[in-house]
Specification:
Length: 349
């Protein structure tokens, strides 16, 4: 159970927690939110009042009465603000306009021009086309999902699958062209957040394993992305698979991808061993027991995840481990980008 404190210093984080609860359970009463977060209803009312006054949170139909006055139910106004999410994790780019309840209302897909600046200009023009459909509604900004490693303070990308992207100050470039706030985040982190928002289970922690052109991971701790001291948490491709000769988990994954491209099918035993290695190491360090596996290369039967669960239980004190495949509905990476932008723009809504 997440607990919040009524403090001006923590107001931003408190609002993030409350808005997530409303988004996942709407329509919901203030007392239900308060009970979930272990605070009193007056705290919820105080924190939400500015958002209610500005029609961002709607107090809509009345809920069932338990004997007293029927409670008003809270919902988020879908058109309160819109986000633009850009999936730039590879050369096939997607740009989505997403409303306040994480619904994709517009989507464009295109191939990224291999000339880096021409490709970024494509993103600018496609974004402007999408924004022309908003009809004056508030735009929170643009969140870009990239594969590879980036500086969490500056957004500067130090490695990427897109050649030349590390040489561009992408935040500055897009801000000048679009005049909107620009956020850049690792694609696996955003996918983890999107998957977490899609979960029906009431959990606080989750680990996402991303099987794309490369192997990545994203960690959710206490319902938020955990980045570590330098922003590189979740880089599971650097885990050691074997010492002599030195082999990483990422090396093994590359071999699996190569075999898949040659034979047209995933080598099941090697995939199970790879996923077990990742899950066992994450379990041992974090004690996170909920995992989601996704990405464009997650093209295998879920029975293999049951094998990984079985192995993990046997090797980790018999404790339960839960591993499921991403359902990609709604799209995790795009909705994760929109949620991340919302969390970082609460006071701009």
């Amino acid at each position: 159970m997440s607990k919040i404190r009524n403090s001006s210093f923590l107001r931003r984080n408190n609002l993030r927690v409350i808005l997530k609860e409303i988004l996942k359970h709407q329509p919901v009463s203030k007392s239900q939110v308060a009970k979930k977060l272990n605070v009193n209803s007056s705290t919820i009312s105080q924190l939400l009042k500015p958002l209610v006054d500005r029609n961002i949170i709607l107090e809509s139909s009345q809920g069932p009465s338990s004997g007293g006055r029927p409670p008003q139910l809270l919902t988020i106004n879908p058109s309160a603000a819109f986000s633009v999410a850009v999936d730039l994790s590879g050369y096939s780019v997607r740009i989505a306009l997403i409303d306040s309840i994480l619904r994709i209302t517009e989507l464009q897909e295109f191939n990224f021009n291999h000339n880096i600046y021409e490709g970024l200009e494509q993103i600018v023009q496609k974004t402007k086309q999408i924004l022309s459909t908003v009809n004056g509604n508030r735009i929170l900004g643009v969140c870009i999902a990239v594969s590879g490693v980036l500086d969490p303070q500056t957004g500067r990308i130090s490695s990427s699958l897109i050649e030349g992207l590390e040489n561009v100050w992408i935040v500055e470039f897009l801000h000048k062209r679009l005049n909107l706030p620009i956020l850049v985040e690792n694609d696996a982190n955003l996918s983890a957040l999107g998957e977490f928002m899609n979960l029906e289970e009431e959990i606080k922690n989750m680990f996402y394993i991303h099987l794309g052109d490369g192997l990545g991971g994203g960690m959710i701790l206490d319902k938020s992305i955990f980045k570590g001291d330098r922003g590189y948490a979740g880089e599971i491709g650097r885990m050691i698979y074997n010492c002599e000769p030195f082999v990483t988990v990422g090396d093994v994954y590359s071999q699996i991808l190569h075999e898949y491209s040659v034979k047209g099918e995933i080598p099941a035993n090697r995939l199970v061993n790879l996923l077990f290695s990742v899950v066992q190491n994450v379990l041992s360090v974090t004690d996170i027991c909920h995992f989601v596996v996704g990405g464009r290369c997650a093209v295998f039967d879920e029975k293999y995840l049951l094998e990984v669960e079985k192995l993990a239980r046997e090797r980790f004190y018999g404790f339960e481990v839960f591993i499921r495949k991403s359902v990609n509905n709604p799209d995790a990476i795009l909705t994760g980008a929109a949620e991340y932008l919302t969390e970082n723009s609460i006071f701009n809504i």
